[in-house]
Fold this sequence. Notes:
Largest sheet: 5 strands, antiparallel
Strand order of the largest sheet: 3-2-1-4-5
Structural class: alpha+beta
Distance between the termini: 40 Å
Number of helices: 2
Shape: globular
Amino acid sequence: xxxxxxxxxxxxxxxxxxxxxxxxxxxxxxxxxxxxxxxxxxxxxxxxxxxxxxxxxxxxxxxxxxxxxxxxxxxxxxxxxxxxxxxxxxxxxxxxxxxxxxxxxxxxxxx
Length: 111
C-alpha cells in the first residue's frame, strides 16, 4: 500500500461556555504542549456533546483535542502518570463529563 500525505493542524475543541457541560471520551495520548498562550495539557478526545457544536451526531463523534491549563486537566494528567489501574481503565473506556462552572472553572467527572 502506498503512503499518503496529509497536512494541517489538529482540530482543537472550543471552550465549554461558563455554566455548560460537554461529554467526551478520551481517544489516545495525553501530553503537555506549548501553545501561543503558554503550556497546556492536551488530550485526544471524541466529542459526544458540546453546546458550541449543536449538530454533533452521537453515531459519529467529532475527533478533536481538548487543550486546557485548568486544574482539572493538570490533576488528570498527574493521576494518570501515577499508574492507578482503575483510573487508566476508566480513562480508556468510559465517557466523561466536562463541567464548566458559571465562574469558568472546569471540573471533570466520569459518567
